[in-house]
Amino acid sequence: MDWIKDIILEHSALQALIVISLLSAIGLMLGRIRVWGVSLGVTFVFFVGILAGHLGISVDADMLNYAESFGLVLFVYALGLQVGPGFFSSFRTGGLRLNLLGAGVVLLGTLVAIGLCYLTPISMSDMVGILCGATTNTPALGAAQQALKQLGLDSSGAALGCAVTYPLGVVGVILALIVVRKLWIRSTDDNASSSESQDHTFIATYQVHNPGIIGKNLKEIAAHAGHRFVVSRLWRNGNVSIPTFDTELHEGDRLLVITNDKDAPSLTMLFGEQEQTDWNKEDIDWNAIDSKMVSRRIIVTRPEINGKRLGSLRLRNAFGINITRIYRSGIQLLATPDLILQLGDRLTVVGEAPAVQNVEKVLGNAVKSLKEPNLVSIFIGITLGLILGSIPIAIPGVELPVRLGLAGGPIVVGILIGTFGPRIHMITYTTHSANLMLRALGLSIYLACLGLDAGADFFETVFRPEGALWIGAGFLITFVPVVVMALLSCRVWKVDFGYVAGMLCGSMANPMALNYANDTIAGDHPAVSYATVYPFCMFLRVIVAQLVVMSFL
């Protein structure tokens, strides 16, 4: 049985892979356990790693550093790809405010750390490590250690302070979110957040009775309506047809309309009357509504369609069909002419059967071609992200150049490729499940390595008198800024709680807390908000860590 002991304890590439895999598997299984309705999920991998490190299990230092870096890069790059399509639109509609709120979290936490340094016997060199651990920001720790070494000071205290406070930094943000949500966020606010983040499409039938639109065509009506909608079918005198922009509406026309649920009441006033038929049930057979029209989902698989606007294809004019809805990464979108198509989009096409078959030839609908993701673009993106993260950036008044690092560079490139890749006809498609797999795999590897690295001296430091003081200081640095900014954001500035949760996780550089937010808050708002504030706040923390060292030592 000595061979079993060797592959667990003797340093080798095989041993590193086995240990990291076992820690990830055990942590993921334990993470499913719920206590008071809360489970830590993948975060539990970190604590399993700490326990293993404390028990003397270790892996080769170079292997550990490589695996930790690779896992982090996989996670942040896949996250950037996921949120990229909604990143810049989110920035235009509220991203500046989110980044300002995230900067408030960073600066408030730094002020708390500086204040505690003067109120306690903790030295500033140790406190900067506590600050990095409490905010779960290892790039900032690296920058602080480099600054300490350039000043000729010992940086081991900063590293140990980060390791000791890191676990509560992870949990502290989650606890703060739970406290804010339970005590100060009303259930109606929570439900509103869930509803808004889903942004459901809504299907309804309307009868035309408004004299103001009778005799006008749909193009004129849409231009003055102020709401987005698609008319899928028109019933007139017992006949059904696919309306075009030039179709004029008559008194008594029945329209099958797809819109957003929040716009449905306004469209009732626009058209005249909404019928009571529920068209939003999952089990509706759209092909049974009338004998002339068929409804079919067609998948975009032709590379030349990737990145084109829906309106530029002129499918309605060419084939007499209507595209009513588009499904992308589990989200249902309204088929507006300015929507940019991506590989893997599923279009709901309504029209006569021969016309729909012709549209199928245009869009592709070759499902098998999407089963193999374009790995070339993934590896190129990761390479570009690592190069970007390595570029030194000079800041006036700061002696040392700062870098975006392993975390910042890949997420920035992932966002850019996810956003602009389709527009330059770059094939960046990955299925939703494949993206989730990349993120979960990367995060699990990263946390297992991080726990192993911190576990060796963790308990020894915790049970020393100064260890308890460090933990208390770290918890205050984590908890106070998050709670204060959460309450100000939700109560004073009336920001949606889903966006606030993602902003807090991003400003604290805490992907584990983001995982909790994604599991407990419906919709994509936390992930989009996280990616909106993460690059700027991470960069700001790297700068602040160096400024603290240079200004107070």
Report the total helices: 20
Shape, please? elongated
Mean residue pLDDT: 81
| Cα radius of gyration in angstroms | 27 Å
Spans of at least 5 consecutive residues whose pLDDT stays below 50 are: 191-199
Q: Largest beta sheet, briefly? A: 5 strands, antiparallel
Structural class: alpha+beta
User: Helicity, in percent?
Assistant: 55-70%
Number of strands: 9
Order of helices and strands: HHHHHHHHEHEEEHEEHEEEHHHHHHHHH
* Spatial sequence of strands, sheet with the most strands: 3-2-4-1-5
> Distance between the terminal alpha carbons, to the nearest Å?
54 Å
Strand content: 5-15%
Describe the structure.
- The chain is α+β, with helices and mostly antiparallel strands.
- It is built from 20 helices and 9 strands.
- The strands form 2 sheets. It has a 5-stranded antiparallel beta sheet with strand order 3-2-4-1-5. Strands 6-9-7-8 form a 4-stranded antiparallel beta sheet, covered by helices on one side.
- The chain is elongated.
- The protein starts with a helix and ends with a helix.
- About 2% of the residues have low confidence.
Task: Please describe the structure with a list of short key phrases separated by commas or semicolons.
single chain, 553 residues, alpha+beta, five-stranded antiparallel β-sheet, four-stranded antiparallel β-sheet, 20 helices, 9 strands, 9% strand, elongated
Q: Could you give the topology of this structure?
A:
Elements: H1 2-9, H2 13-30, H3 44-54, H4 61-119, H5 124-134, H6 138-150, H7 156-183, H8 187-198, E1 201-208, H9 218-225, E2 229-236, E3 239-241, E4 254-260, H10 264-271, E5 272-274, E6 294-299, H11 315-319, E7 322-328, E8 331-334, E9 346-351, H12 353-363, H13 375-390, H14 405-420, H15 432-455, H16 458-462, H17 465-492, H18 497-507, H19 511-520, H20 525-552
Antiparallel strand pairs: 1-4, 1-5, 2-3, 2-4, 6-9, 7-8, 7-9
Helix pairs in contact: 1-2, 2-3, 2-15, 3-15, 4-5, 4-14, 4-15, 4-17, 4-18, 4-20, 5-6, 5-7, 5-17, 5-20, 6-7, 6-20, 7-17, 7-19, 13-14, 14-20, 17-18, 18-19, 18-20
